[in-house]
Amino acid sequence: MESIVLKFIEYLKNEKELSKNTIESYNRDLRQFKEYISDNKINDITGVNKTAIIKYLMHLQKIGKSTSTVSRNLASLRSFYQYLLNKGIINQDPTLNLQSPKPEKKLPDILTPKEVDILLRQPDITTSKGIRDKAMLELLYASGIRVSELIDLNLEDINLDLGYLVCSKNNSNERIIPIGKIALNILKTYIKDYRKKFIKDKNVKSLFVNYHGNKMTRQGFWKIVKSYAKKANINKKITPHTLRHSFATHLLQNGADLKSVQEMLGHSDISTTQVYAQITKNNIKEVYKKAHPRA
């Protein structure tokens, strides 16, 4: 059994000319599989059937291996048994028609309402920069718009009297999104008293501008968020998109319907919005586990 695996590894090295790291992965995966079948009283790796391989993949999942690790192990076994089939050592490939597990959908990082509050309190509102930064952060969380949409906003896109913004007006997916009173108040202050301190050309229409009087860039705003996230000392990876994720999740947690959230986010497919519903379900499970005496 050992010699067959060694010959396969030599084949990968000399004929397939795979990289050293890839060969090491194959070798490691096969040796782990050999150990498993040995523990299960199967002494001949060439005599393994499809059931044994399925049980092995289930075993990997049971001990907490990630979907990508399980898929890689199956790929290693598939290559190995295809090699044995081509060499005439076996008559049937036991991995034939076995499907790799579907990759897990990674849930986005979100902040709790308390963490959002801590982050949004970081800008120093005694300064022009602090007022501008707080207006940007508050508006991002209040509306759930994308960072690109935030920096593309012009003054005319904001209705301070009625409390809404118009987003993506240059395409067919125009959205009218309400603005909460906290964001609206700081936005009024910024527009009426502080934006003009950044402006050097009165023809600039951009709502949010940098020190040079030009439209804020994605990179510039990313740096702003990064600096306040560090200052807030929240032990999570925080990006500008984190506030959009948090906006959607908090709305659903507080009773908003999925369709309305989809429209505010500008998702063309509701399945994209459903990921936030999954986060909400996970949170409910955690609350249940902590609160129910028999959970």
UniProtKB/TrEMBL annotation:
Q: What SUPFAM superfamilies does the database record attribute to this sequence?
A: DNA breaking-rejoining enzymes
The UniProt entry, under Gene3D superfamilies, shows: 1.10.150.130, Intergrase catalytic core (1.10.443.10)
Q: What is its main location?
A: cytoplasm
Example of a GO cellular component annotation carried by this entry? cytoplasm
User: Could you tell me which residue ranges the Core-binding (CB) domain spans?
Assistant: 1-85
Q: Which InterPro entries match?
A: CB, DNA_brk_join_enz, Integrase-like_cat_sf, Integrase_catalytic, Integrase_recombinase_N, Integrase_SAM-like_N, Recomb_XerD, Tyrosine_recombinase_XerC/XerD
Family annotation (Pfam families): Phage_int_SAM_1, Phage_integrase
Q: Does the keyword Translocase apply?
A: no
Q: What does this protein do?
A: Site-specific tyrosine recombinase, which acts by catalyzing the cutting and rejoining of the recombining DNA molecules. The XerC-XerD complex is essential to convert dimers of the bacterial chromosome into monomers to permit their segregation at cell division. It also contributes to the segregational stability of plasmids.
Q: Which family does it belong to?
A: Belongs to the 'phage' integrase family. XerC subfamily.
In Swiss-Prot or TrEMBL terms, this protein is called Tyrosine recombinase XerC
Q: Which organism encodes this protein?
A: Thermohalobacter berrensis
